[in-house]
From TrEMBL, chains A, B:
Name the UniProt record assigns to this protein: TetR/AcrR family transcriptional regulator
DNA-binding region per Swiss-Prot/TrEMBL record: 34-53
Organism: Halobaculum roseum
InterPro entries according to UniProt: Homeodomain-like_sf, HTH-type_TetR-like_transc_reg, HTH_TetR, Tet_transcr_reg_TetR-rel_C_sf, TetR_C_27
Keyword Heme among UniProt keywords: no
Segments forming domain HTH tetR-type: 11-71
Keywords for this protein: DNA-binding, Repressor, Transcription, Transcription regulation
């Protein structure tokens, strides 16, 4: 077990270290980052970092949980709207979520996407991202399930629909960040609405037999 | 203009250098990569690299074009199938494309996704990825256009549909690589088929008035 587990770091100290890590990461990128770069972003002595964290790996895992908590905290939505509106509200939170402290949603997402790609090579980060991914997908899946129960959406695998929407959100953010497509998030919602929501809504009005006639999707 | 422009590197030499770069990148990752790591993967003296390339940035841009050419080369498909089958063939090529030399499709894609994320910080790589993205999206868009012209798909913006499908492919690959979801590519095609192709096919059978009644997507 690492030193940083079980809340042993006082909240204010953790916040200072995490924000310093964020600034250092934004400046240097993940692979080039050294503990001393983080120390230089702090007002406290950098011995504080070494006191609370067992090196870069431990600090980075804690940081990953920190930005994921911020992201997920931004996706809380009141759950009483009709399914399409509820879906829109949640997707918008994921795509356009608010900034925190001095950094914007997109500053956060830039670091988030860099760590996501880096998880290719890091089992611990992969495990943290997988738990997070499950929660985000779950929040979307829940709305689809509710729509099916209320007879507004057709009967389908809600988890597959939730996964598809989560993937579209992720890809649109990546396209904005890596390719500079600033309209990608807005396009993503319009595509989710035109294709996914359309398909969920439309088929509730048609019989199963008619549907499998039309699309042959079981072939 | 860099030394590597206009085909001045003999093809066999370029191939050797590119494959050495690929091996070194797979081992060290992009940010930690030094020119000498690439030299160590080559049979020829590493002076050959310095003779043909102006440093790491020039070499990496050339390498990015090399792996993109391989990827795009794998997406060539005969264009005479019905639109849904044609779409399936192209999406499958993007998701499961063949390996080259000693590396698999996924070894290639791992490096590709790392460079994609790094393009956040690199204008030259961003420009190369944008051209590539335009071609891949174009190859999907073309099939949607053809389906609309033949009356098999409903009337919609084919570029938006092409973009959505391209995004879903990209996200599924990223999920397999970063989160270890080995079934993500297979799920991606099933989702594209169930939702996007379903929506494209189904609405061709319904009137526009009925459609806007059902989904209210112009709201």
């Amino acid at each position: 077990m690492s030193k940083s587990d079980e809340g042993s770091v006082p909240p204010d100290t953790r916040e200072d270290i995490m924000e310093a890590t964020f600034r250092a990461l934004s400046e240097h990128g993940y692979s080039a980052l050294r503990m001393r770069d983080i120390g230089e972003e702090m007002e406290m002595t950098r011995q504080v970092i070494h006191y609370h964290y067992d090196g870069k790996q431990d600090l980075m895992s804690s940081f990953l949980e920190y930005i994921i908590d911020q992201y997920e905290g931004s996706v809380e939505v009141d759950g009483d709207a009709p399914p399409r509106e509820e879906l829109e509200a949640r997707v918008h939170q994921c795509l356009f979520g608010p900034g925190f402290e001095e950094f914007s949603h997109w500053d956060r997402m830039k670091v988030y996407h860099e760590l996501f790609t880096h998880a290719q090579n890091d089992e611990e980060h992969r495990a943290i991202f997988n738990e997070h991914y499950g929660r985000i997908r779950g929040s979307i899946t829940e709305v689809v399930e509710d729509g099916i129960e209320r007879g507004v959406f057709r009967d389908t695998d809600p988890e597959r629909a939730g996964q598809l929407i989560t993937d579209i959100i992720h890809a649109a953010r990546g396209r904005k960040l890596s390719l500079g497509h600033d309209d990608a998030p807005e396009q993503a919602w319009r595509s989710i609405d035109e294709f996914v929501v359309d398909s969920l809504l439309a088929d509730a009005e048609r019989s199963d037999a008619e549907r499998s006639d039309l699309d042959g999707s079981d072939a």
